[in-house]
């Protein structure tokens, strides 16, 4: 399961993600739809650990992502 709560990311004065929240249960497949610049790639880069986020919480299989990044990424396989 992936749970995202109030995720925020800015680059300088540009707010890319503003308190987005969603939950995806194990075994389900979702896609991101939106216009160019909507934050789809930024969200995926955050969830894979390539990009840091400013605030919010991410849980992968119940583990807090910011405290257990390596374990959360490998445990979700």
TrEMBL record:
A Pfam cross-reference name: ABC_tran
Coiled-coil features, chain-numbered ranges: none
SUPFAM superfamilies listed in its UniProt record: P-loop containing nucleoside triphosphate hydrolases (SSF52540)
Ranges where the ABC transporter domain occurs: 17-72
Keyword annotations: ATP-binding, Nucleotide-binding, Transport
Residue stretches spanning the membrane: none
Origin: domain of life: Bacteria
GO molecular function, one term: ATP binding
InterPro entries named among the record's database cross-references: ABC_transporter-like_ATP-bd, ABC_transporter_ATP-binding, P-loop_NTPase
Family designation: Belongs to the ABC transporter superfamily.
Protein name: ABC-2 type transport system ATP-binding protein
UniProt organism field: Thermoanaerobacterium butyriciformans
